[in-house]
Amino acid sequence: MSTIVPFGPQHPVLPEPIQLCLELEDERVVSVIPVVGYVHRGLEKIAEKKDFIQDTYLIERICGICSFMHSMSYCMGIEELMSIPVPPRALYLRVIWAELHRIHSHLLALGLLADAFGFENLFMQYWKSRERIMDAMECTTGGRVMLSSCCIGGVRRDIDENQKKFVLDQLKEVEKEVTSLNRTMMEDYSVKQRTVGIGVLSKEAAYAQGAVGPTARGSGLVMDHRMSGYAAYRELAIEPVVETAGDCYARTMVRCREVMQSIDLIRRAFAQLPDSELKTPFKGNPSGEAVIRCEQPRGEVLYYFRGNGTDKLERLRVRTPTFANIPAMLTMVQNCQLPDVGVIIISVDPCVSCTER
Amino acid sequence: MRVFTLFKEIMANLVHGPATRKYPYVRRPDFPGTRGRLMIDESKCIFCGLCARKCPSDALEVTRKPDQMWKFDQYKCILCAACVEACPKKCLRMAPRTEKYPDEE
Ligand code: SF4
Ligand code: SF4
Hints:
The complex is a heterodimer of chains A (357) and B (105).
Chain A (H helix, E strand, L loop, with lengths): L2 E5 L11 E7 L2 E8 L7 H7 L5 H6 L6 H16 L5 H29 L3 H22 L8 E2 L2 E2 L5 H27 L1 H7 L7 H6 L4 H6 L14 H4 L11 H25 L14 E10 L2 E10 L4 E7 L1 H13 L7 H8 L3 H5 L1
Antiparallel strand pairs in A: 1-2, 2-3, 4-5, 6-7, 7-8
Helix pairs in contact in A: 3-4, 4-5, 4-11, 4-13, 5-6, 6-11, 11-13, 12-13
Chain B lengths: L6 H10 L20 E4 L9 H5 L5 E4 L5 E4 L9 H5 L5 E4 L10
Antiparallel strand pairs in B: 1-4, 2-3
The structure holds iron/sulfur cluster (2 copies).
C-alpha cells in the first residue's frame, strides 16, 4: 500500500515554496506530482502595462538571486529590437556584475545544500564568504541585491580604481575561504555519504528532459550559453565546467568549480577592461520580435519580446532555468529514499520565484 | 576516508571571534553611493513632474495646480534611482540608509 506525503510548500530545506506530493512505498518514492503557483506575481502582465524603460527595474525583480542577469537579458533583447550598439566597457562591466552574481548564487546554493544534509557549520561558512560578494556588489552599484546598474544601451555606473581594488581584495579573500570549504564539500566522508550516487540523472535523460545549467553539466552535457559569446564573453574564452556522474555530488562539484572559474573571469575582465562610453543614447520605441538567451547561475534563461512600436511591449515571455529543470528534478526524485528528497531538490538549486514570475 | 575536514576553520573561527556585528548597537557604515533613501531639496524643485513620470512603481506624485506639491510614498519606492537621473534640476539624491527624513523622529 502506498502513502502520499506532501513535501512543502513549507519545508525546512526549501528556501521557496514549491510542493511535491510524494507517493511512497515504505521509504521509497514511487511517483511525484509537483504543485506550483504559490508565489505567482503576474510580472509578465505588469511588464505590458509599464513602459519598456521602467520594465528594466521590474524585470530585475523576477528573481533576487540572479537579478542582474535578468535585467541584462532584458536590456540585450531591447537592444536587439532597436539595434542599439553597446559600448565595449559596458559589456565588460556587465560580465563583471553577472559573474559576481554567479558567485553569490552558487555560494548560496552550496550553503543551502550543506544545510539540507544538516552540516550547519559549513552552511554558515559559505554564507560568510558570500557576504563579501554582497559587499562588493553594494560598493560598486549601490544595491546589495537589486543592482539596478544595467540599462538599455549600456550600464548606469562605472567602476573606479578604488572600487576595483575593493572587489579584487574581496575576491582574494573569497577564493582563500572557498578553496578550503570546497575541500570539505569534495572530500569529507559525511558529505559524500549524503551526495555520491544520490539522485542520478543520466546524460540521455538530462538531454531528453531539457535540463539546463549545472544540472545538465553535472550529467555530462557540454552546454553553457556563455560559450556563444554574448556581452564580453567572446573575448574571455569560457571553458564549460562538466562532470559526468550525474548525481548530487557531480552537480555540487560543478558549482564548486564554477565559483573558482567566475573569480578567474572577473580578474581577467578587470585586466582587459577597455575605456569607452558607458551607454549609447537611443530614441524611439521597440517593434518586432526577438528571442534572447543568457546563462544564469541555474542555467539558460530564454526571453521572448514582441514590440509594436509603442512604448509598451505587446508581449514579454520569460522561460527561466528552474522551469526547464523541474522535469529532470522529478526524474531524480523517483526511486530515491524519503530522507534524500531534500538534498536532491536543493542540489538542483530551484528558484521558484523565477519559475512562477 | 577523510573526516573532520572543517576542523581547521572551526578552530580559527573560535579564536577570531564572531563574524557578525551586534546589530542595533554596531551598524555597518554604508558605502558611498549606496541607494539607501530618496531625499529631495524642495527649494530647487520646479514641480515639472518628470520624476513621477519615470518612476516605475508610482511612488511619486507631483501637482502644480492648485497647489504645488511633491508627494513621495516611501513604502512604494523600490530605490531604483530612475527619478534621480530624470530630474532636470538635480534636486533629488540617494542618501545613506542612516540619514533621517525631515519629519522623522
Ligand atoms: S523632476 Fe526634479 S524638479 Fe521635476 S518635479 Fe521631480 S524633483 Fe521636482
Ligand atoms: S527611486 Fe525609483 S521607485 Fe523610488 S521614487 Fe525614485 S523612481 Fe520611484
